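Bench log. Compound arrived from synthesis this morning; before running ITC I wanted a structural hypothesis for how FE2/S2 (inorganic) cluster sits in the protein. Inputs:
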Amino acid sequence: MSDLEDPSDSIAGVKLPAADGRVAIRLDVNGRSHTLRVRTTQTLLDALREEVKLFGARSGCGVGMCGACTVLEGGRAISGCLTLAALCDGADIRTVEGLQGPDGKLSRVQEAFLRHRAFQCSYCTSGFVLALEALLARESEPTEDAIREAFSGHLCRCGSYSRIMAASLDAAGIQPAPGASAEDA
Ligand code: FES
Ligand code: FES
């Protein structure tokens, strides 16, 4: 039996748990395939942190309100805290750890966040970065409004919003409005 075969049945394509209460799934995370046995109640966020040992996505509110747990699924930003890992069999997941190039070079968005020091404690940073990465992947020239929309549902408890927007406008190639300093962006 392969490591992914499971004695349990499935209903409508959703696997039922085995006797140990776990479900076998395969996740592609940052280009690497992982075979996991997850609890039926385990969120994608917890599976990434507890099983894959990637800690860039964080738990904040736990109810889809803060964005700290954001990861990309097939290029789309999703809340890891609201997603059951057992339903992610075969998913293509990217976390903030997977944004660097093979040579270790940071992504354009990461570089801009560093350049503008767009964080204090950085708890929220991976969520903002991934939300912007997802936007730029589908819109190469987004408007400022589109960036603000992409950030809806993302909170920064340190209040670094002006620097986050300055970095994001920079990464998107948008000039700040005349007379606006980076801090006012
Ligand atoms: S921890 Fe998921 S949105 Fe806050
Ligand atoms: S930098 Fe601390 S929560 Fe955003």
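What the model suggests: The beta strands are 10-11, 14-15, 22-29, 32-39, 70-73, 76-79, 92-94. The chain has a mean pLDDT of 92.
ITC booked for Thursday regardless.
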